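Comment thread on ticket #2218

A.B. wrote:
> Attaching the input chain for the structure job we discussed in standup.
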Amino acid sequence: MSERVLVSQLKSLEDGPVSVSGWVETVRDQKKVQFVILRDETGAVQLVNPATRPPAEGAEVTEPQDADALALTETISALATGTFLTVRGALKHDERVKLGGVEIKIGSLEIAAAANPETPIAADSSPDKRMDWRFLDLRQRRNNLIFRVQTTFEHALRTYWIERDYIEVHSPKLMASPSESNAELFALEYFNDQTAYLAQSPQFFKQMAQSAGFGKIFEIAPAFRADPSFTSRHATEFTSIDAEISWVDSHEDVARMQEELLQFAFQAVADKHGAEVQELFGVEVQVPAVPFPRIPLAEALEIVKARGYEVPRTDGDLDPEGERQIAAHVLETYGHQFVFITDYHPEIRAFYHMRDEETGLTKSYDLLFNGVEITTGAQREHRVDVLIEQAKEKGLDPAHLDFYLDFFRFGAPPHGGFGMGLARVLMLLLGESSIREVTFLFRGPTRLAP
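C.D. wrote:
> Ran it. Output below, let me know if you need it in another format.
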């Protein structure tokens, strides 16, 4: 058996015998010649077969026909889109072939798994219909690229952190108590009549690592929110990108780390996939300059108001339209896709965010990318007595947080970190309209399968 060659490798090979495997994308079954477009995980190639047809009824047969050639022609005629197969044949370079400048003359064809002839989705199918048949939807080159970009992006994040001596952790996703608040929790039965909760974030355990003396840590892992939202940027299960570092002076140390991290990761995506992203998504991967602009929340609200939009929310935070407006201002003023919104009031921040002793505002930020929040970051409160009081202010019972508070009763360094949604970053990077398009299998209030 010939060794399988990936489609992406064909261009570099010399003419001659070759074996490729993949699935049928299209078949053009002409009278004298048959063309099959075969796609694998790296690209598509044109296969060609001179058709051998049985003689028309009543026609004179002057030469015996090749039974193998007849059978091959009939097999190709019957191929359904999506059939997985292996082809062995002769590779030929030909600049006239639009698809990669190479083609393969079929010698033999072996079907691994035939597809049903009726495909359940089409190019104009609704998003829900496509999600029902996600494995078919993902066969498109465009969707394949999404997850290659994701792989490069995550690898770059890890590279940045590992080169700077960060430790990767894997925190538990089953918890005995909430990680953020009593809301948006998925509860499930556990052993010995206990109730467990799916982790909303690794927040508490990221901070535990600081008390453990790890210094700098990161995690890329699932998180869960029982949030019945149907927006383009919410999911009940998502991938959270988290980092936490010790010995910070303020949230600015965290922000500087994150902007460097994103610049590094975007550069990796641009270098490896920039041209293909431009071709398939019509989007230029722009590597952000550092530092990113910073705007205090109070100033941001005034800027948005001056642009003709007044945020209607009573909690004092930017709403989605407010985020879009301040992002438009930053793009017009600074030519930048990113902006840190800083100095949030304690009422709209978690109890563990440290507060500035002079202003009373939290040492925290939200990071907006193309008008959408992708991150919350902050310096954490590491003094246990202050933590207890701030928890009480939020209506939380310190007794229910005892295991968390223990992390700080035996010493803890000043620290801070951030949490960032992977799907939101990919959605905005590729100019997609919903995180569903950039999530391998989306989970939302009405979707638990496939």
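A.B. wrote:
> Thanks. Noting for the ticket: Residues 132-438 form a domain with the BirA Bifunctional Protein; domain 2 fold (CATH 3.30.930.10).
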